[in-house]
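## retry 2 of 3
previous attempt timed out at serialization; input unchanged, resubmitting
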Amino acid sequence: MAWRDDLQPASFRGAEFFCSGHDHTFGRRVELNQYPGRDDPWSEDLGRRAREWSIEAYVLGTDYMRARDALIAAIEAPGPGRLIHHWLGEVQATVRGECRMQESTREGGMARFTLTFVESGEQVEPAARIDTADRVERLAEAAEQVAVEQFARDFSVDDVPAFAADAAEMDAGNILDIAEDALRAVRPDALLADLASVRTTITGTRSRVFSLVRSPFNFAQQVLDIVRTLGGTLINPLAGLSGLFNLSWPAAPSRTRSRRRVVSNQVATRNLTRTLAVASAARAAAQTTLTSYQAAIEIRDPLASAIEQVASDTTDDRLYDALVALRAAVVADITARGADLARQVNYTPVAVLPALVVAYQVYGDIESASDIVTRNNVRHPGFVPAAPLEVLVR
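## retry succeeded, writing output
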């Protein structure tokens, strides 16, 4: 096959023309950086440059004026158009700059054009998107730090009788017991390193309770490390940490200064554990892969309610503000990530059917058969009962 056989009839926006030659400009956009006092330059590659074609075109024939006017109209039309290049084939191009046309009596019945085209590409505008999960992470950390600082300020066993210090040690031990019990509800895929870290921290903290309660900031930091790691290992962090969230003591008389100190220490401890519990649950929720809109709501609403409850109970303005901001971030994050997820609805098969058949009836394909079996705890995929099933639809 000769090369002429590969040439294509040229046109722009459907207006045909002949082509006698062309120049093709292409390459890379490179910024050459040369630094004072340094011999070696640095060539910064900024990407491929736009391809450009300069075409020598012409129309001819007894009725050439009609073809000439059609080509002029195509060139002057706004926006990109379909260019059939004589040598290169079809491209989406825009006419660039000034175009020239020549006519003469010497070349009667012919009009020559000098045209420059540049590839048009696609208009892609930058879109800003807020990383809602990262915002939850940052605000959870801010709430934790405020809670630790508040605890360090409000908790003290200095200048109190031995029974008040003993009560603080018992309360600290109670927190560690609750944290240890929470390990029973870890996810099957939880990292062994995280579990080992929690257990090691709990054991180390328990062995140093006597000294730690006399250094409230260090004790709060130890509890923070435990709760933060726990939140990333539990199946349901808010439920798994409920023991810390609901930590309370029976009402005790507070007529003396020492008794009042015991009560204030317990209040400080409760404020700390509740804040750390909801902050850890918020962080875990932001890292959770949501499977459906309903699942998102089931995570969002209880967590938002718990954060609101902790905020309403605190008397510290900084902690209140931090918790309010955290609650708003959690709601925004889960709402945004769950908005486009499938909705969970009930579907009842007309008879006992294989999961493949049920999937085809619901979705029109068989790809979701395994999801139906797993979601509804079907014993055998060949025998899906004629009972209400949970299925996801968009």
